[in-house]
């Protein structure tokens, strides 16, 4: 039986960052986190539509999102584990790599595990 090769079409890049930082006071600072993500979005030449950040009082972390015309950048932090999960999804030909490079520059003491996904769809047959 012959196989039909279906070509997929990319709609964007999705980057997942696991960030580990032992001196991470910023992991509880919603204002600092929003500025961090805004600088990453600007480096990618993204268009910020709105943002929302929530702090989980006490020693809790922060969850937040920048809603972009091109998709989103989100973060969830766990200060007690010195850990943040950052999600960058951008459609089109934006400079997603520039956003990651900006985060690396702004967090020079952090260790980052970076995973890239191409978001794709299959054309109708």
From TrEMBL:
Chain ranges passing through the membrane: none
Record's keyword annotation contains Cell inner membrane: no
Molecular function terms, GO-annotated: adenosylmethionine decarboxylase activity
GO-annotated biological processes: spermidine biosynthetic process
InterPro entries in the cross-refs: AdoMetDC_fam_prok (IPR003826), S-AdoMet_deCO2ase_core (IPR016067), S-AdoMet_deCOase_pro-enz (IPR017716)
Cofactor(s) annotated in UniProt: pyruvate
One Pfam family linked to the record: AdoMet_dc
Keywords tagged on the record: Autocatalytic cleavage, Decarboxylase, Lyase, Polyamine biosynthesis, Pyruvate, Schiff base, Spermidine biosynthesis, Zymogen
Protein known as: S-adenosylmethionine decarboxylase
Biological classification of the source: Bacteria, Pseudomonadati, Pseudomonadota, Betaproteobacteria, Neisseriales
């Amino acid at each position: 039986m012959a196989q039909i090769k279906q070509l997929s079409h990319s709609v964007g890049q999705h980057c997942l960052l696991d960030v580990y930082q032992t001196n991470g006071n910023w992991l509880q600072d919603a204002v600092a986190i929003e500025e961090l993500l805004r600088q990453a979005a600007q480096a990618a030449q993204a268009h910020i539509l709105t943002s929302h950040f929530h702090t989980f009082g006490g020693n809790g972390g922060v969850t937040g999102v920048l809603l972009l015309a091109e998709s989103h950048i989100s973060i969830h932090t766990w200060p007690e584990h010195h850990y943040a999960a950052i999600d960058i999804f951008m459609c089109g030909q934006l400079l997603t790599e520039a956003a990651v490079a900006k985060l690396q520059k702004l967090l020079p003491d952090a260790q980052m595990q970076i995973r890239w996904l191409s978001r794709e769809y299959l054309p109708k047959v």
